Here is the input.
Amino acid sequence: MLAETVLAGLLMASGAAAACTKGPHPGVVIQQCSKPGMLALAYDDGPYIYTSELVDILDAAGAKATFFWTGTLYGCIYGQAAAVKKAYASGHQIASHTW
Here is the structure.
């Protein structure tokens, strides 16, 4: 609940809720926001047990994020395959943090 409240506040404050669109094509490197006043949400070190719920919260708000995932930090990434596929299918950017 707290995460939803904080995220909603950030999105409203930035005006990002109305301006979010589908994420970039795979392999595209984003170095800066394409619109002034926008913010970039990034999550490190997942996937974790809360990843699927976080994707739902972001999707409900119309927001996109970049997920920097590791291969083995919280167990093997293959154990979180459904959450990884869900984030990608929802248009979030997926990046490697390290294995």
